[in-house]
Amino acid sequence: MKRSAIILSALALAACEQQPAGEPVVRAELSDAVAGDELAALEELVPDVGGVPDPNSACLPVTFEETSLTHCTADPATHRIRTSLAPASGEEFGTISAWAAGRNESAIAFVMNAGMYGDDLRPLGYFVQDGERLAELDRGEGSGNFYMKPNGVFFGTGGNWNIVETGVFLRTIGTRPAFGTQSGPMLVMNGELHPEFQENGPSRAIRNGVGIDEEGRAHFVISNEAISFGRFARFFRDELQTPNALFLDGNISSLWNPASGRMDERRVGPLLVVERIDD
Fold first, then answer.
1. Which pLDDT band holds residue 203 (cuts at 50, 70, 90)?
2. Is residue 185 reached through a cis peptide bond, with omega within 30 degrees of 0 on the bond before it?
3. CB hemisphere CA count around 235 (13 angstroms)
């Protein structure tokens, strides 16, 4: 895959509005749609942090269909994944930097926001942290990306990670995993794109997601500029070749990559923490 300079994007908290036809609607709290003038204003704030990628970094810059992305890989042989929650109080509540304060940076490969959350920063839908279920599986109906069926669950124990549609998870998973987060919509299901995605629809946002390849590796991707659902999903299917991939969130999408010094300061709630396994 072609490498390019990393471009960081600023947070866009846009007012709720009707989505263009053919694109998923968004949850009530945050709009995934960014108007042209808003996007231009954001791009003026994007710093130039290009350069040679750190060879020790699990995250690398890529370009897909002329769109800048950052691709982070978690390998079961060298990494473990767990979930956590950003602090819900304090001056910097709801940020990865507040969560990271005082932690051993050398043990962290990267951290990315997990599934969606409510006004209290608590996760929407199923969420398991260190084997404890903090929120139940949500099979209800509603508006927003989370409720755009099928949605799904990213979960695992040790080095065994998986992504399945919510209904399949309910029917087939009988043992509680060490970590789990529910989100939606599914981006890729058994090698097929979500049926409601346009090829490159007009709704654009900073987005992130995760997919699992045939070798069991987890591929985390965050866009460095606004991207459509269709293009984002195709990257997982065509470039990463992940039979199943799950959308995590949009516009609040955030990454901490200690190897490059990237620390996004957007408001987050649930987190996915990828740690290095001690030699």
1. confident
2. yes
3. 30
Q: List the Cα angle 225/31/165 in 5-degree steps.
A: 85
Tens of pLDDT, residues 242-267: 999 999 999 999 999 999 999 999 99
